[in-house]
Amino acid sequence: MPYTPGEAAGRIGVSIDTIRYYEKIGLMNGVERDSVGRRVFSEHDLSRLGLLRCLRDSGMPIARLRRFAELLEGGDETAGQRTALLEEHDREIDEKVAQLRLEQKRVREKIAWYRSVAEH
Amino acid sequence: MPYTPGEAAGRIGVSIDTIRYYEKIGLMNGVERDSVGRRVFSEHDLSRLGLLRCLRDSGMPIARLRRFAELLEGGDETAGQRTALLEEHDREIDEKVAQLRLEQKRVREKIAWYRSVAEH
DNA sequence: CTGTCGCCTGGAGCGCGCTCCAGGTCAAGA
DNA sequence: TCTTGACCTGGAGCGCGCTCCAGGCGACAG
After folding, report:
1. Residue A90 touches partner B, C-beta closer than 8 Å
2. N or C: which end of chain B has fewer CB within 10 A?
3. pTM exceeds 0.85
């Protein structure tokens, strides 16, 4: 059930350096250590890391991620705030997708235009 | 019909510094200058800049943008390569959107889970 | 005639998110 | 016993895409 840093990194798809960085900046507080100081990741740590990574990959900046991590540490009372934060992120993803689709439309128009010119 | 740097920046929605930077790195070669060395943007320059900006905003890295700008300067013979480049970018936008939707799914599942816990 | 404004240049600096490095500890295998 | 390998730390460095700065120039307003 516990994972070494290398296993954790492999499972989530990040580098060990990223894991250490996340701990350093307060995104992953409370990860246990073994007798010689090496990190030991629980299943729960992994899912936390996975969620953080998912939020990060979908565009959440580190500062916001830190806020989320803080709320996670705040226990049950912060569940509402966590939900609100995720809901806002959800909306931001929608907006980003909409924006990408607009840009894609323009790209496609340009492609169509190049094609129409090609067949003179 | 011609625009000053400030007007060009305003119309496209970038800073003058960005315009200068784009010229410096070869994305906007061939912009004319007036008698004292100030840039003069034609309608065509604006649409070029606008397209570059659109590609950039939709995630194309500068190196690729540079390649595209080179092709633009290559004239009619490069139209096919330009089209190919834009088509690939179009696919990349699709992939990025798909990825975002996956991540959004996970975010929504987490929200749903928080909600289900809240109503114990 | 003196601001002030918009622009010019080359080059330094910045914010983000890692990534790499030097130097060290311990454990297990040959 | 020696080596290899995974991990540790603090801190420097990096790649990207701008952004800002100092110092200067010409045009136009008061």
Report:
1. yes
2. C
3. yes
